[in-house]
Amino acid sequence: MKSYSNVYRYGLVIAACSIAVFVGWISGAEATCLLLGVMVSSLYGGHYPSLVGAGLSVLAFDFFFLTPRHHFSIASTAYPRFVAFIAAAFAIRYLIRSREEKIRGHAKELRELIDFIPHHVLVLDPGGRLLEANQMVLDYTGRTLDQMKNIETVERIRLDIHPDDIAKARGERQRNLSAGLPFEIERRALGKDGEYRWFLFRYKPLIGADGEISRWLCTATDIEELKREDERLRLVVDTTPAFIHSARPDGSVDYLNQRWLDYLGLSLESALDRELQGSTMHVDPRTWAWNLISTIHPEDLPLFTDKWNLIIGSCKPGEFEARVRRFDGLYRRFLFQVAPLCNKGGSVVKWYASSTDIEDRKRTEEELRQKEIEVANQLRLVIDTTPGLSWTSGPDGSADFFNRQWLEYSGLSIDEAIGWGFLVTIHPDDIPRMMEDVQRALKIGDFFESECRIRRYDGEYRRFLFRGSPVRGSEGSIVKWIGINTDVEDRRRMEDALRASEESLKRSEAYLLTAQRLSQTGSFGCKISTGEMIWSDETFRIFAYDRNIRPTIQHILHRVHPGDKARFQAYVDRAMRDIEDCDLEYRLLLPDESVKHLRLVAHTERDEAGTSKFLGAVTDITETRRAHEALRRSESYLLEGQRLTHTGSFGWSVPGKNPTYLSKECLRIFGFDPERGMPTWEDRLQRIHPADQAKWQEKIDRAIREKSGYEVTYRIILPCGILKHIHVVGHPMFSESGDLIEFIGTAMDITERWKVEEALRGSEHQLRLIIETIPAFVWCAMPGDGKVVYANQRFCNYTGRTLEELLEFKWVTLVHPDDVETTIGSWRHVLETGEPLEITHRMRRADGVYRWIQTLAEPLRDRENRITQWYGLNIEIDESRRMAEMLRATQARLTRATQIATVAELSASIAHEINQPLAAVVANGEACEMWLSIDPPNLERARLAVQRIVRDGNASAAVIQRIRALFKQEIANKAPLDMNEVIHEVLRLVSNEVQRKRVNVRMELSLEVPMTLADRVQMQQLMINLVNNGIEAMDGVAYGTKQLILRSRSDDLNSILIEVCDYGSGLVDVERVFEPFFTTKEKGMGMGLSICRSIIEAHGGSIWVTRNKDQGATFSFRLPVLAEKA
Amino acid sequence: MNAKDHMVFVVDDDPRVGEALLELLSSLDFRVMVFGSATEYIEFPKPDLPTCLILDVRLPDVNGLDLQRQIADRVHPPIVFITGYGDIPSTVRAMKAGAVDFLPKPFGREQLLRAVEEALARDTRSRLDRDQVNRLKERFSHLTPRERDVLPLVVAGLLNKQAASQLGISETTLQIHRGQIMRKMAANSLAELVRMAGKLEIAIPSSESTPL
């Protein structure tokens, strides 16, 4: 092979050189051709042939183409140098050759080393192409190195690798090679015996000096046996009925058994796939693959991750729970138990985890717990709804639970009640007793019962039965006390009531006995067939028997008075025989010889057995008998009483007017003889005084007609001529059908009373005396004609007339001639109308002087409101009248003085008003003069001054006119006037001003303002003044709030009140505003309000001002009402 | 009288009167300003000239007499009151408070002229006085603190020796101070200096209380 190659190569060189010479010969491009020949031989010949080629080419070139001058030749002098050159070249050549030899020796050694490694070793270039393979590889594959090198990598993998592993192996290999990091691949490789065996391929990059990967070293370890073992183990693991997985020391899962995979519904590959597929969820992919993580319940995931990491970090076994999703989406709870596998150094090599599905167990536990809670709740419900107050306490008796009823009842919270806190609810009086019971029960450890009062939430104490019973633990010691308190208040009350009723029964029995004793009535029962009897205590007493005997009917018979014995015997025999009720009275003869009257009443009764018996009572009626006697006696006393009081009683029947009863006294009063029997109606009628007969008859008739009682006083004349005053009162008596059948009544002899009345009449005289002496003139007159029927002595004395003269209408002559007409007129008027009289007039005194008298008279009316009498009183009022006159005169003087003062004030103000323009006139005049006197005269200014003089002169004239106008009205033209009308007029006059100043005018005018007597113009002036005043007062006030209120109303019966109320700046001095020249206004004279006051006072009214509460002032004035025409 | 060297203020609420007075006083060659109310007058900046104030008693805002009282404690022109309603109490009050005259309306030219001239003359005098005092104050302000100590003692009539011992300085020093004072105050004699001190209202210690 090699020799062939050498011959070929040398031959090629020679051929190439020959061709080059030939071509160069032909073409003339010798150098180029020879160069090409050298290149071809160098390219295809290798070292030596190329050298030969170059030498041949040089020789050929030299021989054929170079001129002899240019032939290569070596000067003789240069031979040594040439030789040295050649030697040096060979020396270098040798050195290089020996070096190469050495390297080749190393390579061979390496090769042998590789071959010696008991592993399959492959060397790959960075692209993954096979460069070297050791002997084992060659042996295993049964190929030579060259064969292996010559096969394409892809093809080689296809041939050598198990078809199942190709896809994975190819992908992983390619990916990892490009990544440039060491990696491992497990795959099956085909051996020369045609069997696949498992190999672990470990790839490791060799880094060159330039930092790039220069080679890949790959070792393949035969793991077939290991695999097989693993498979077996896996089979075991997969078939184990447990969920098992393993993880690398860093915690990343590397294996899940089949059971796990079946549960999860994943293949091992997909389970361990670490790629996060389209999720942004953060999972530490180092520990768990995404697909596994996503099977953990999201709620458990944080806990799960923490636990797992904790265990991994601690290198100790551990366990935790988490819910894991089944293939069908159901989550089930798992208990993960993790244990590490450690090497000898103690570091973890592997984690093994076995998980158990505890879902069912959990659920069962949950159900159990639920059931327990339910039972507990039910129990609580039972306890809370039990209609009793229940509690539990510790072994020492301190409470630790109270049911809701207890807490609701006591109103305490559980915290307040537990321990011994509940004691506050126990009635303080009951605590010692209860504590004693409790202590005793605690000591002996047995059921106990106590009663105590427990306070309800509202403070009421109710009695409770306190029952406690111990609960014993398994070893027999008391662990708890359970108790219930039952409200026995109502029961106790009932018991108390029962006890009380028993007592009352007992008491009532005692009462009965007492009653029997007091009423002296004994009761008895008697069995007729046997004659056996039962007696009450009183019965024994009545019959005077000892209580120890057994009473029989014989005992009764024995005591019967001998006088009544036969009657009693007969009566009793009959009653016993006929069995009928009996009622009889008889006498007893007692052993002490005393006699008792007895009444025996018995009632027969038949019981179910058909035996009859008597139930009866015996009453000692001795006393009653005695009382009867007394009654009879008292009747005679009554008769005596009637006689003494001269009061007789009677009765007479209406139909025949016959007396039914006339008491003895009655007969006596009327002077009838009792022995002669009842007198007839006519007899009695004859006795009546003839003058009273009609009255009497009328009364009686009316009483009968109206079926009413009657009362009449009349006189009777007895045959002996004695006159008696009788007062009779009769009451009607009616039959059951309502008919009047009888009158009963009393007739009283009131002759004595009559006499007393006479005496009374005497005292009237006394009264008259008093009237005579009072210091006034008293008189009486008859209604109708007004005839004076009485005048007291004082009147007569004053006038100097006798009473008779006065009574004969002579009083008229006493009245002052000027007053006669009005006085008589008034008197007639009151006589007609019945009104009280009140007049003043002058009356002549006895000395002929007329003095002022006030006469008052009032009528006296009877029940029918008819005037029966006029009573009059005259009082001399001359003095007071004179005083009033004087007062009036003084007032008039005062008014005049005021007027004078006002005039003075006015004149002062007029002076000011006029002086003002006058000053201007004078000054202007002087100025004018000055302007004219200078040289040359300033005519322009002089004219101006003159114009002003004229203007101001006119102004003063206007002032004077105004003032004259003011005073003209002094002569008031008073006429009936409606002030409301005036107010309306004034508002019309000032409407311009009101609008200009935007004042809101409100009128509160009463419709019932009476007329007043006043001067219309002055009233207008007054109102204008006040209204303007109000408007001006509000100048400084903001628009919108300017409000002027005008009010009018009837103040009282005699005056009307007008008010002008503004909301202006108000007043500083309410006292001085009406004074002349007092002003707060810029242009005011201070006269306006002063004039107002003058006007009002001239009309008899008054004016004043008040500050408003909030703002402004109110001017008010009062005017008298126009008097009604008399 | 020259129209430039004085001023007459008229305060009257009645424009007719104001006008007339303006006219009259103008014709008499016075410079006149008329105001309708006290407020207007008070708010007007006053020129530094001899002035006279013609004041109506009754004014819309402040009564003339009240205005007089209000400005009493300030430098103000002499007042001539005019009134349309001259009552004696007001007159007395006004005159007591230093009014020049009290003219009842209407008043004649001569009356007014006399009053105005009197007022202006009075104001001129008081202005001169004020100027003099101001000049003295100006001079006084040039004195050193020590000289100001010395001045009252000298003015009080103390001998140089006494004054020197009181201040604890030598007589010679005091004499120097004294000379300086006389020179600075431009006083020709001690008497003049005393008058100056009086006008300046310098407190002069009584010589009796001097501890000697």
Structure in words:
Chain A is α+β, with helices and mostly antiparallel strands and 1126 residues long. Chain A is 47% helix and 25% strand. Chain A folds into nine domains: 2-73; 117-222, PAS domain (Beta-Lactamase, 2-Layer Sandwich); 226-365, Beta-Lactamase; 386-487, Beta-Lactamase, CATH 3.30.450; 520-620, Beta-Lactamase, CATH 3.30.450; 628-756, PAS domain (Beta-Lactamase, 2-Layer Sandwich), CATH 3.30.450.20; 774-876, PAS domain (Beta-Lactamase), CATH 3.30.450; 886-960, no CATH class; and more. Chain A is built from 35 helices and 37 strands. Chain B has nine helices and five strands. A five-stranded parallel beta sheet of chain B has the order 2-1-3-4-5, sandwiched between helices. In chain B, helix 4 (88-96) links the parallel strand 4 and strand 5 (101-104). The longest helix of chain B is centred in the middle third of the chain and has 33 residues, at 109-141. Classes of the chains: A alpha+beta (1126), B alpha/beta (212). At the A-B interface, helix 30 and helix 31 of A face helix 1 of B.
CATH architecture of the largest domain in chain B: 3-Layer(aba) Sandwich
Question: Order of strands in the sheet with the most strands of chain A?
Answer: 2-1-5-4-3
Under the CATH scheme, the architecture of the largest domain in chain A is 2-Layer Sandwich
Q: Quick one: overall form of chain B?
A: elongated
Order of helices and strands of chain B: EHEHEHEHEHHHHH
Given helix and strand content, the structural type of chain A is: alpha+beta
Radius of gyration of chain A (CA) equals 79 Å
- Tally of alpha and pi helices of chain A: 35
Instruction: Say which CATH homologous superfamily of the largest domain in chain B is assigned.
Output: Response regulator
SS strand fraction of chain B: 5-15%
Structural class of chain B: alpha/beta
How many strand elements of chain B?
Answer: 5
N-C termini distance of chain A: 182 Å
Please give the count of helices of chain B: 9
